[in-house]
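Quick illustration, no need to memorize.
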Amino acid sequence: MFGKVFAGIAAAGVLAGVLATGAMAAPAPATAASPAKAQRPAAKDVFGGTVTAINETQLTVKNAKAGSKTFLRTDATVVVKGRNEKATWSEIEVNSHVAVRYESRDGKLYAKRIHLGRAHLAGKVESVSGNVITIRTRDGKDVRLTVNSSTKYFEIIAKGKRQAGSLKDIHAGMRLLAAGSYDASHNFDAALVAYRNK
């Protein structure tokens, strides 16, 4: 049920853009490649989703529609974040949203370039107290989301449509999706919160 709530936005590429950059606008429309520029890899060579496991040599990424894939790290693997800012392998963590450009060799997948987005999580709101929203994730864990004056909110109106929202709209019982990062205490600093009022 929760996946269906956000399916329209994810399908439109809006949610992916939000998770990767924090921007509330939809990604710029694709333009035809110039003959002078190198051609982009085929879509089948790019895989996006949520990191479910990672170690020094490989990472596993899960996509809601396409399942999971494990990518091997090489000396040539490049990691970037935001607007192509250089990042490191150690910055990738479980629950991070990534887009992996890869190549297949000998039945294995090798990561060429990994675009690191913000970590994200989803769940049902248990309580709201001041600047802390406690949610229960699908696997039954309670996570405290900390929000601040720079946190962005948007309400999902319908498939592919959303509008600016606010903390006062969040209440127990509703479901939400947040993008941000974990702190040292494993609380979640939310940069963006998406929700749908019933």
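The chain has a mean pLDDT of 79.
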